[in-house]
Each structure stands twice: as C-alpha cells, then as structure tokens.
Amino acid sequence: MSLVQDMAAGAPPLAAKSDAAPPRRRWTLLWRILAQPKGAIGLTLVVLYLLLAVFGPMLAPQDAFRQNFAQTLRPPSAAHWFGTDQLGRDVFSRVLVGARATLGIGVGGVAVAFLIGVPLGILAAWRRGWIEAVLMRAIDIMLSFPDIVFALAVVAILGANTQNVIIAVGVVAVPVFARTARAVTLSILAEPYIEGSAALGASPARIILRHVLPNISGTLLTLSTLLFASTLLSASGLGFLGLGTQPPFPEWGTMLGESRSYIRSHPYLATFPGLFLAVSALAFNLLGEALRVIYDPTSRRTARRAPLFAFLRRGSPTIPATAPDAVNAVSVKALRMAFRTRDGLLDVVRGVDLAIRPGRTLALVGESGSGKSTLLRAIGTLANPQEVAITEGAIGIGGQSALGLSATALRELRRRKIGVVFQDAASALNPVLTVGAQLAEAVSAGSSLDKEAVRQRCIALLKDVRIADPERRLAMYPHQFSGGMKQRIVIAIALAQDPQVLLADEPTSALDVTIQQQILVLLREIQAKRGMAVLLVTHDLGLVARFADDVAVMYAGRIVESGEVATVLERPLHPYTLALRASAPGAGEGRGRPLRSIPGEPPLIGQFPAGCTFRPRCPRTQGRPDCAEREPEPRTVSGRQVACLFAEEGLS
Ligand SMILES: Nc1ncnc2c1ncn2[C@@H]1O[C@H](COP(=O)(O)OP(=O)(O)OP(=O)(O)O)[C@@H](O)[C@H]1O
C-alpha cells in the first residue's frame, strides 16, 4: 500500500452518527427577568411608575396647582394624605402629577445620551485611528468632571427649564454610552461571522445594522436602565438647586428643593417626593441588574483581539496589477506580505506563487505560524490593510485582479466569487439571528429575489448541505444545532452566491473525526457538482491525502514544495515535507514506527535565518555552505516545484 493510500486508509468509517442536536427551549426576555427576584421586583415597580407617569394627573384627587393660604403646611391627614405645602397645595396630588415630568426627564435624558453616545462609540470602534483617539480623549475629559458640575454648566449656559434639564442630564451620560458602545462593538467586530458577512460583500452599514446593533442591544438596554436611575437623580439634583422644572409645575426634585426651608419643621414635605424618587431609582437599578445578569458579556464571550476592520470601508491595497490569470480560479503570483509592527514591516508571506484550477482542491499545509491563514485571508480579500501590507505581487480570482479595487468592486468580488468557511462554526454564526435570517442575508445580498424566492433558495441550500427538514430549521437559532450542523450551515452560507472559489481555514478541526469526515465528503460532493476551486488550510496530512488534489507546503512564509498530492506525499523531495510526513499520524503508525517530531522550532517572523530558512533544522545541510548563502528558488524536479538546492537527493 502506498503512503498516500496508507494515510487515506486511516480515515474512520462514515458511521451513521447523527450530528443533529435536539432543539432547546428559548426563554423569552420577560421570563428571564421575572425568574430573578430582583428582576421581578424591579420590573413590577418600573411598570407601576410608568403607569403613574401616564395616569398620575388623572388620579390626583385635588388640583395640584390650586393655592390655599388657609391650609398651608398642614401635616398628613385624611383630607391631604401627604399634607400641604407652603402655598397650601395638596402634596399627594403634586407627587402624582409630578411623576410625568420626573420620569419624562429620565427617559428624555437617557434618550439624548443614547442617541449621541451610541453612534459615537460605534464610529470610534469602526474607524479606529485618529477618530477613535480624539473621541476617547474628549470623553476622558468629560468624565473628569463630576456629573452635577457638568450638568450645572450646561443648564447655566442654556437656561433653566425642563427641556434644558433633559439635554444637560443627557449630555452628562453620553461618555458612558459612547465608551460602552465602543467596547462592545469592538468585541462584536472581532467575531468571525462579521468577517463572513464581509466576505459575502455586505456593506459597513448593513453589517452594523444587521450584526452589530442586535448583538450590542442587550448591553445597551441594561445600561439605559441603570443610567435611568442616575439621570433621574442628576435631574432631581438640578431641581433641588432650583435649576430644574420651574414652579408652579411639580417635579419631585423641584419639590424637594422647595421643601428645604421647612425640612426641620415639616419633614413630611421632603419625605414623600424623596421616597418616590428613591424607590424609582431603586426600581430601575434592580431591573438594570437583572438585565445585566442576562446580557453579561463575560458569560457569553470573552474579549478577543479586536482587528481593525479597515478592509470593509477601503478598497484593496494598490499594488501594480499584473494581468489576471484567466485559466485558474485562483492565481497568486510572487505575493509578498508584511505585518505592520512597532518595529516596522515584518515579512510574513515571502514570494508565494499558487494556482488552483476550477474543480480542484489545493491543500495548504505547514506548521503553525508559517503564514497559511495570512495567505488565505489575502486571497479572500479579507487581509486588514492596517495590520498587514501586501507589498508585492498579484492575486487573481476567477480571472479578475483582487488588488487595487475600489471598496464597491471589492465587495462585489467577495460576494460573487468567494466563499469562506472558518474553523469555528459556532462563532461564524450570529447567535441572535435565526439560521433562516442569516442564510437569507447571504442569498439576497446584491440580488433582487422576492421573499419567497429567497426562502426557496435557503431551503435548497440547506438540502445541499444535507440538513433534514430545512423548512423547520430555518426558524431555529445557531445554539439549537450541534457543531457539525453549524458547520454545514456555515458552508451553506458560503455557497449562497455560487462562489467560484471556496476558502476553508481548518474547517473541521473543531469537530470530531466522524463529523469531520462527513463534512469533507460533503464539500467534495458539492465541489464536484459546482466545479468550484477549494483552498483548504489544514495541519492534517491524512485529510490532504484523502480530500485534496494538489498540495502546497509552506514554511516560514514560502512555499517550499508543491504539486499533485500523490506525487508530493508519495515521495517528498524537500526535507521539510519529508519531516512533516514522518510526523503525520498514519504515516508511521501503520508500519510499526513511532511518530517523529520535527527537531527545532520554526523561525519567528522577522527572525528568518540567512540563506535557506529551513537550514537550522535540516539534516541535508551539513558542510554545505551553499545553503547559508542564498534562499533557494522553487524549481521543477520530478513533476513538482521544490525549493531545495539538493532536492534530487530525495529521489535516491
Ligand atoms: N497582527 C499580527 N502582527 C504581527 N504578527 C502576526 C500578526 N498576526 C499573526 N502574526 C504572526 O504571523 C505568523 C503567521 O501567522 P498565521 O496565522 O498566518 O500562521 P498559520 O500558518 O496560519 O498558523 P496556524 O496554523 O497556527 O493558524 C505567526 O507567527 C503569527 O504569530
């Protein structure tokens, strides 16, 4: 048995194991709030307060504005439950009537803060760079003033009335909204489904509306509730100082301010509005706490490296475009890429040539850190230009250059020609959208299909990836599917626009071996049906042997050996390919030999040795000064390309 057959034979049988997960019951937000004691109490009180704000003036037993100098400063009694004030007005009626103004200021203040702060925060996260720096510094300066001082300054400038109090307390809360919106947006932008959506050609506005806002809405709702209480207290502080709602209109803070001269002789005057105010702040805080538990970002996802999503709003890097290759679905020529670091540009991809014909699968293999994912992202036009520069070379997709395009042309190219499948299907799907909504988005991007046609196409796609009962599945959420099913859905989304090229970055490494097999067999079938070119990044030579047609072995940012799988894996000529093969499970085991690890470490980017980069780990290099002098260029030896000065030694 040949080595390739040997490794292919190591494949587990395609067991009839089902990767379907039973659907889980979805708790509604209301139920989850009521399930917590503080949520139940908070929500009940908030509802009562809102009812009070709406119906308070109608429920007031007496005219809240009518002065009666014969009845001033009367303590609570049956006629005046909360007593009367210094002008003989019924305090109970004033508290009821004042609910609307008090809560109105809270709602208005939060709305002002939300409407200014959230767009600023999203803008800072999206644009990064100087816009983010300027916004964040301005917010730091605002935060360095105590709230009440800032609100006082705003009211002093604008004048004391209810409308200006709303603006003042709103402006004071803007920094909190902006900071939070920025932080949660950054973490959402780092999610692979955002990259997936960009790969489908979605515009920045669509990504924000469709993916970012729904995902950050829970956090913002929690924050709004919590800030409502502090806004209310800031407004009452202004009222207490005489800068809030002006007499004779009742508002709880203003009523407190009016009562301060009588606080010792007639404490009930301050007690009732103060009590209503304190309990309202408590109610909103309790509700906010309950929402925080539900939406706590630390329980849902941990912070991730936040990439700068400049690629969504910019065109592709401007490299002198060479003529695209019309025969190959993917053609990469002399590509060089470098990471932008504090120490300058660090080469990561160094002169790579690749070509994939329609209907073929090219596997890109190599140790961790060799630059495979960076190269795949560049081919998918997903490399972030603020992070990594394409310094030389050309990339062609379906006969079209992928470099030097405008943002619109780039989105069109991604949408029409490229599908991407990432390793982690769980984070490649948006958890707050149904599978149907995500598929529909992929199908309808750039098309004029009506709703029913989109639905039918979604059903057909789910059938293509062998998901049973697709009509019902469309209404389900990602968490109701198992890992294998999620990956099928990700593949269906990637196939939605009939791409010519499918890029798969370790698409099955998060799955168990049986499911892995099913997914790869499925990919193979779909590829055969559609004639797509597939670029498969993997560490697993066994998978390469079974599922790829061609293989390119990458080491330290270069392709050191490439050709047909049967040729390269059967008789590797580069010492690195030989070492990789010897370390692959299935290569040695079946023959009773132990697995061998590759001695030494791959070089870090920016620290490549002179001459051949594999030299420090190479068994062939001893006593050969040529290896230290220059980096070998790939040349044809025995039916493949190999970059080793002494490749012929592998033939003997
Ligand atoms: N933003 C960055 N700035 C600097 N270096 C980076 C950055 N991102 C990745 N690298 C480095 O670039 C090298 C190539 O990374 P890449 O992810 O392309 O490798 P890989 O071959 O795909 O590895 P793996 O198989 O582990 O995914 C690695 O050494 C990595 O540490």
Automatic annotation (TrEMBL):
Alphabetical list of SUPFAM superfamilies matching this protein? MetI-like, P-loop containing nucleoside triphosphate hydrolases
> What does UniProt give as GO cellular component?
plasma membrane
Q: How does it sit in the membrane?
A: Peripheral membrane protein; Multi-pass membrane protein
The organism's superkingdom is given as Bacteria
Question: Ranges for the ABC transporter domain?
Answer: 332-581
Q: Tell me, which GO biological process terms does this entry list?
A: peptide transport; transmembrane transport
Q: Which GO terms describe its molecular function?
A: ATP binding; ATP hydrolysis activity
The UniProt entry, under SMART domains, shows:
AAA
Residues in a coiled coil are none
Location in or out of the cell: Cell inner membrane; Cell membrane
Residue span(s) of domain ABC transmembrane type-1: 99-288
UniProt-listed PROSITE patterns: ABC_TM1, ABC_TRANSPORTER_1, ABC_TRANSPORTER_2
InterPro entries noted in UniProt: AAA+_ATPase, ABC_Ni/Peptide_Import, ABC_transporter-like_ATP-bd, ABC_transporter-like_CS, MetI-like, MetI-like_sf, Oligopep_ABC_C, OppC_N
The residue ranges crossing the membrane are 40-60, 103-126, 138-159, 220-243, 275-295
Which keywords does UniProt give here? ATP-binding, Cell inner membrane, Cell membrane, Membrane, Nucleotide-binding, Translocase, Transmembrane, Transmembrane helix, Transport
Its family?
Answer: Belongs to the ABC transporter superfamily. Belongs to the binding-protein-dependent transport system permease family.
Protein name per UniProt: Dipeptide/oligopeptide/nickel ABC transporter permease/ATP-binding protein
- This chain's source organism reads Bosea spartocytisi
The upper taxonomy is: Bacteria, Pseudomonadati, Pseudomonadota, Alphaproteobacteria, Hyphomicrobiales
